[in-house]
Amino acid sequence: MRVVEELRDSLFGIMQRDPSTIVLGEDLLDPYGGAFKVTQGLSDAYPNNVITTPISEAGLVGVGLGMALRGRTVLAEIMFGDFLTLTTDQLVNHAAKVKWMFNDAVDASLVVRTPMGGGRGYGPTHSQSIEKHFCGVPGLTVMAVNQFQSPGDLLKEAAELGSPVLFIENKIMYSKLVEPDRLVSYDRPDAVILTYGGVTEFCVQAAERLLDDEELTVEVVPVQHLSPLPADLIRTAAAKSDRVFTVEEGTVSWGFGAAVAEEILSAGITPHHFQSIAADPTAIPSARNWELEILPSVDKIERAVVASF
Amino acid sequence: MSHDLQEIDTDVLGVDLPRQDRFYRQLYLIRRFEQKLLELFTNNMLAGTTHTSQGQEANAVAIMEALKLDRDMVWSNHRCHGHFLSYCGQSYRLFAEILGRRTGACGGRGGSQHLHWRNFYSSGIQGGFAAAAVGAALAEKDKGAISCIFMGDGTMGEGSVYEALNFASLLSAPVLFVVEDNGIAQTTPKELGVAGSITDRARAFGIDCHHLASTDADEIFATVSPIVDQIRTTGRPAWLHLETVRLGPHSKGDDTRDEAFVAELQKRDPLTVYRDRVGDPGALETWCDDHIAQVLDLALKDDVACAS
After folding, report:
1. Residue A15 and residue A151: Cα distance in Å, rounded?
2. Is the ipTM here above 0.85?
3. B115-145: string of b/e by CB count within 10 Å (b at 16+)?
4. pLDDT at residue B1 above 80?
5. Which domain holds residue B219?
6. With b meaning 16 or more CB within 10 Å and e meaning fewer, what string describes A101-118?
7. B281-290 average pLDDT score
8. What residue spans of A90-139 are helical by DSSP H?
9. Is residue B125 part of a domain?
10. In contact, A58 and A110? CB cutoff 8 Å
């Protein structure tokens, strides 16, 4: 099954279990069914539960928050992850805070889904991976799918959490097959790669090549929960090898690699080699080759691992 | 939080009193409550910040009277004490909250600007809850409930308001949008912050617009009551531009206006306007003075809020 199909099935499942669930976002109505087709078929099946909205990302998240505060489970779609900046006040100042600042008397079952990532030549405002700006906000859970663990199960978990979740998908991942068997575990791998989201595939491909070409064992550990980070998962993985890499599609400063390093070092785990692989610190060019040059790639990951020996 | 702490205090609100006595009781209660807050600040007994509603009390009193407090939802802003007190009468919980006590309405977490009680919510971000008020109204529409959101003339600068208006009209959300226009946003006069008409702002969204310049609680109630009924009957939003006065500072001692100008505004003081309409204002005032002294004394003795 493809990632988009798993997510769609999961949405149908969530709606079946709780018929008061609301799904809202831009261009969701059938036959279009959303820009990346995750909601296709949903508005035909549940016409009263699917709301197509004006181009108002802050407004639609705010409307969703109001519904969630009054007991509904709400799944909001932001068409491109880049547009999340427009929702920042609703997510950071409102959704994330209502439970705590109102003394735990309320909560909001609000999931905001959005696709991040480049590789399609969409340029500076439709290609970014900016989820790091929303990590570390108390009260806001951030999750990211990858195609080697079940995206549908993760979406179900997000909808059942009962508190606000920012749910990161990935544009080029939608058409990929879900392939859990490609994650390989070793007792003492030559290197460990901690990663998340769309670039998980690059890590898995690099690990497969390194095994074939260099006879190096590389364990790829995808992280589905970006904020708060699962400390045990990260520390256990990092403790397996002297070489620890992180790979993320966004830029490196204040990013996933830094957060992983903090988790590892604060637990007294000190790998011989630690390296973060990320996008170059620039906006994302539209020109296809240039875009691929500045983003992490299978080659870059492979070269970095080889160079560490 | 246990159920008994989530009550509306009908005694404080004067629910059993004749309407005019009730109105004056609440007007005076809000005024004295906030004057007491400023006094506590002056005496260094209060930390943080506060925004009093002196001059605007009649809006809170009249609009809460027009709402069905058992089901309607109220969304307020930084200047929320009057709305809160007229909504639920929980003066003790509000004092405790602003004083940072565990017994506060939000356990000392929210403070002056971030209050929640039953269906009352407030946020310190201008227009921050406008869209949420729309969503909540949609979620509760089949229960016959409406949302009422309070904004100020300063809030007209926030784009979130216009997104919320668009949603409210497109989706037919039963929402009363109230703009309490006191003519000044912190220190910026309306002329420097708001272009065009506040009254007509929602008309382009296909929303009925109403205007009233008054600090008279009876007059405001007479205007608001049919609007609320219409929202409930039609399931459509409405917009009310209420011109009012700010008699005090924005926060504490930050009033940059000319003294003579503020003295002129005092003539429209909603308490002065109303006092002659009740038979025994002194008795209502004494009740409030005693009540405020009593609940403040209680709140001051409560444990302060802290992490452990």
Report:
1. 17
2. yes
3. bbbbbbbbbbbbbbbbbbbbbbbbbbbeeeb
4. no
5. 11-301
6. bbbebbbbbbbbbbbbbb
7. 98
8. 96-101
9. yes
10. no
Instruction: Give the three-class secondary structure for A227.
Output: strand
Both tokens assigned to B71: 């089901």
Mean pLDDT confidence for B98-105: 96
Distance in angstroms (rounded) separating the CA atoms of residues A173 and A197: 9
CATH number for the domain harbouring residue B185: 3.40.50.970
Domains in chain A, ordered, with CATH? Answer: 3-173 (3.40.50.970), 183-307 (3.40.50.920)
The tokens for B156 are 């007209």
Q: How many residues does chain A have?
A: 309
Per-residue pLDDT band for B253 (boundaries 50, 70, 90) equals confident
Instruction: Work out how many domains chain B is built from and give that number.
Output: 1
Interface of B with A (CB under 8 A): 1, 6, 73, 105-107, 109-110, 114, 116, 121, 123, 125, 128-140, 147, 159-160, 163-164, 166-167, 170-171
Strand segments, DSSP code E, in B51-102 are 73-76
Position B307 in a domain = no
Mark out the alpha helices in A114-255 (DSSP H runs).
151-161, 200-214, 231-238
Handedness of CA A184, A188, A191, A196 (dihedral sign): positive
Asked whether residue B248 is assigned to any structural domain, the reply reads yes
Residue B174 lies in a domain: yes
Q: Which residues of A touch B139 (CB under 8 A)?
A: 66-67, 70-72
Distances (CA, A) of A244 to A61, A213, A218, A224, A262: 38, 20, 10, 18, 13
